[in-house]
Amino acid sequence: MYIYDQYDQKLVDERVEQYRDQTQRYLDGKISEEEFLPLRLQNGLYVQRLAPMLRVAVPYGLMSSTQVRKMAEISRKFDKGYVHFTTRQNIQLNWPLLAEVPDILAELASVQMHAIQTSGNCIRNTTTDQFAGVAADEIEDPRPWCEIIRQWSTIHPEFAFLPRKFKIAVCGSEEDRAAFLLHDIGLQLVKNEQGGTGFHVYVGGGLGRTPVIASSIKPFLPKQHLLSYLDAVLRVYNRYGNRNNKYKARIKILVKAWTPEVFAERVETEWAQILARDVDGVTQLTENEIERVKTFFPLPDYQSVDEAAINGVLQAQAGDSLAFSRWLERNVRDQKQPGYSAVTLSLKPAGVAPGDVTDRQLESIANLADQFSNGELRTTHNQNIVIADVIKSQLFEFWQLAKADGLATPTIGTINDMICCPGGDYCSLANAKSIPVAEAIQRKFEDLDYVSDLGDLELNISGCMNACGHHHIGHIGILGVDKKGAEWYQIQLGGSANKNAALAKVLGPSLSRDDVVDGIEKLLDVYVENRLEGEAFLATYQRIGADKFKERVYAKDA
Amino acid sequence: MQKMLSHGAVAEDNWTVLQQPVETIPTGDILVPMTYWLEHRAELSAQAGQVGVWLDSDEEVEALVNDLGELRLIALNFPKFVDGRSFSSARLLRDRYDFQGDIRAIGNVIQDQLYMLQRCGFTQFSLAPEVDLQEAAKSLSDFSDGYQTAADQAQPLFKRLR
């Protein structure tokens, strides 16, 4: 992974001292509440319903075991001994003290971590595929590009006070695992006919109150021009994005208002002017720099293995243990390197808020990464953790250790692997609780044979229309709404975050808290009764439409 | 006399900022709204005092490109400190239109923006009257270097140091 040099380290250290001074001036009454707000947000600090919340950046989801151990230590020293993994691959501390945040940031800086721009109206953490580097369908490893974008966006002098937050995702593979079409800028790595690397640029995607799938504005941006083109997009947005109404301030609203074609032209004009002034090519990325960053993402020395023999052993182990067999099926994925697997550790056991992990579990995760991989791991936008490059012959041992630590729930990609926001239990924006709904669903569907039979099914829960739980892109989406002070839940169907991204449609009137789980069960019954062999929930829904689901859920005699 | 930060130091601010609508022109150095400047350029140029122009955050610097040679001061307003449009305006004045005079941040500008404002090409800062300018000036050097090209640095860090 990327290792800071003296310049990276100095900048992060100086940021800690800047924020320490800002916090002190705030506590001394020298900075008003209003002025302190964006300063603390841009250092990751929210003030939530119950306590402040600190969001720590995990650049493009990549962490070292050293960093994970540091998070465990911080959670013990400054918090309640657990952390939360978010849908944007970051980590949140739920109970830090405002006055101690500078010390936490200093601890983070000691392991090359920070909380810079994890909130506020600025360029946020760039996200990507958790299987980067090992996915069979990869066109190019997106992580060096994410790092280049991280550096460009960090303390960018022109874009710290944008109309609204700004999220960039990079997709480096055929299949999309980064939901890149639901970001303010989605960059897809592509090759042109000459084999040159470039980016297909999409803008204006996003969830929230007005969910929109991003529009293509440039089919091939040559790689060396990445940063000047990003500057052009951001400058157009910074100058012309809506600043009067925060609900109309995201770039998606500007792209829609102008049309993607006009937006693309405006960017093209701005970019042409930047390039026209840049006679020496100063704004261009050099091969030197691209190669320098790429060297930080080497692939390990893979051993050549007798895959047939290993598969035979695995089959035998799976035959002896149904639990191991389930885990292999749901949580283990082949890599492009034969004989190796990428393992997903589930952070969604029933009874725990999705994405929550204790300090002890963090240390176990770090140990697994050291023992079975190269000491690195990846956070996912589904709020799980991936350890890649596990040699297949060690999977059984890996599973036993992960299981002992509660990290091997064999439900990845199933209904019980839901994305869920903190909801009304923690968040001051929420209209309804979401974690208890997630737990009720997990309790209802405890039968692993049934869950496994249901197969791939994304269920996403948001406690309000700001959509932190990504309900618009769940195959089943649940949205908490407030009806005269009571918590109700709207059901949506048919969302998807892959290359054929689609937004879910509302099924009908919202259900009371008591009726949600029954409603979900009815949806699943309709699916099971109507599916063709091997057909997943989303495909069945797309084939038969919403009517049958609707009839069942809202049947009068039900 | 009011004070400001100019090129890193506390300085006297002798300029009067004229608000819209401009009715009478005082003596001395004046900062006039851009629309007023564009309509009354000839008579303003005949003033005894110096004349500068100020733009609000929603006004485009492109309207001034033919006048940049005769202006020594352009002020960019921040109606609210979180309104970041003037950061882009300053960069355009410097990077695209080669404006050589002073660029001053006026309005609701705060100490914690100084480093970034300076990187975008601002040279002068009118902060709120109660602000201790000596203290505030320290924020100009919150960081010793940045990754990006900007008005104060023609080369990105990776080309200079890596």
Descriptive overview:
The complex is a heterodimer of chains A (558) and B (162). With 558 residues, chain A is α+β, with helices and mostly antiparallel strands. In chain A, 38% of the residues lie in helices and 17% in strands. Chain A folds into 4 domains: 6-109, Alpha-Beta Complex (Sulfite Reductase Hemoprotein, domain 2); 134-294, 2-Layer Sandwich (Sulfite Reductase Hemoprotein, domain 1); 318-404, Sulfite Reductase Hemoprotein, domain 2 (Alpha-Beta Complex), CATH 3.90.480; 419-553, Sulfite Reductase Hemoprotein, domain 1, CATH 3.30.413. Chain A has 18 helices and 21 strands. The longest helix of chain A has 22 residues, at 6-27. With 162 residues, chain B is α/β, with parallel strands linked by helices. Chain B has helices spanning 34-39, 41-45, 85-96, 114-119, 133-137, 157-161, and strands at 3-6, 9-12, 16-17, 30-33, 51-55, 73-78, 102-107, 124-125. In chain B, helix 4 links the parallel strand 7 (102-107) and strand 8 (124-125). Chain B is globular, with a radius of gyration of 16 Å. Chains A and B meet through helix 1, helix 2, helix 6 and helix 9 of A and helix 3, helix 4 and helix 6 of B.
